[in-house]
Design a protein that fits this description.
By secondary structure, this protein is mainly α. It contains six helices and no strands.
């Protein structure tokens, strides 16, 4: 039986966080240890895994922030098209907060995707001395799935560069409309609804929604494939973790 070293402990923490902390994937309990790997190799592998964990978490957070903001703005839109000022006012606080976080996410998305790519490349180059063929194959599959995820993330970032301006405009329009509505610009709810309809370009908004929804579905599908490979790797590397 092996004794866990500080480096092996870091590997366990890094790999467990990679699987559970990012997307909530659960795994079976590790098996009893049956191999010994030099600590210098464990140290390098743990650092590579930790880098993937941290950079992937940031990219996931970026996408989630954007999705939440789009959904919140859509909720406001659903009320505003009816001229319902009170419902819009109630929803705008949530939408404004979500939009601010999404704006920051869109600004850093490209940088975060590049950092994730660098981390995945680092995992691909991490030393595998002492690992058995199953463990090596599991790590290779993680790298392959992560690179496929990166391809979707690059596409997602490209879509965001095109459509996010529409959501920025929607946020501005909703704020303007609510200010005018609270200021008595509209005589009744029907007139308020008509005014909102003039302010929003519905075809452009519909196209942006479709593009974002499609990019988001592809992003999440690729992430689930990475989760599957990470679950397999967690089992394959279990003997290193105790």
């Amino acid at each position: 039986m092996t004794t866990r070293t500080p480096r092996a402990t870091r590997l366990a923490a890094a790999l467990t966080a990679l699987l559970v902390g990012v997307t909530g994937c659960q795994n079976r309990e590790p098996t009893k240890p049956n191999v010994v790997v030099e600590t210098r190799y464990l140290d390098a592998l743990s650092k590579a895994i930790d880098a993937v964990n941290k950079t992937r978490a940031r990219v996931v957070a970026d996408g989630n922030a954007i999705s939440r903001a789009a959904a919140a703005l859509d909720d406001v839109d659903d009320a505003a098209v009816t001229g319902d000022r009170d419902t819009v006012r109630g929803r705008r606080a949530t939408a404004s907060t979500a939009f601010g976080k999404a704006q920051a996410a869109t600004n850093r998305l490209g940088k975060d995707v590049r950092a994730y790519r660098t981390a995945v490349d680092g995992l691909a180059r991490a030393p595998r001395e002492g690992l058995d063929p199953t463990q090596n194959a599991a790590l290779a599959d993680v790298v392959s799935a992560a690179r496929a995820e990166l391809s979707q993330l690059r596409d997602y970032a490209t879509v965001m560069a095109v459509v996010w301006g529409t959501y920025q405009k929607l946020d501005e329009v909703q704020g303007l409309w609510l200010t005018r509505s609270l200021g008595g610009w509209y005589r009744d709810q029907r007139e308020a609804a008509g005014a909102y309809g003039v302010l929003v370009d519905r075809p452009v908004l519909a196209k942006a929604r479709t593009s974002l929804a499609g990019a988001d579905r592809r992003r999440l599908a690729a992430a689930r494939l990475v989760d599957d490979q990470l679950a397999t790797a967690r089992g394959a590397l279990a003997s290193l973790l105790d």
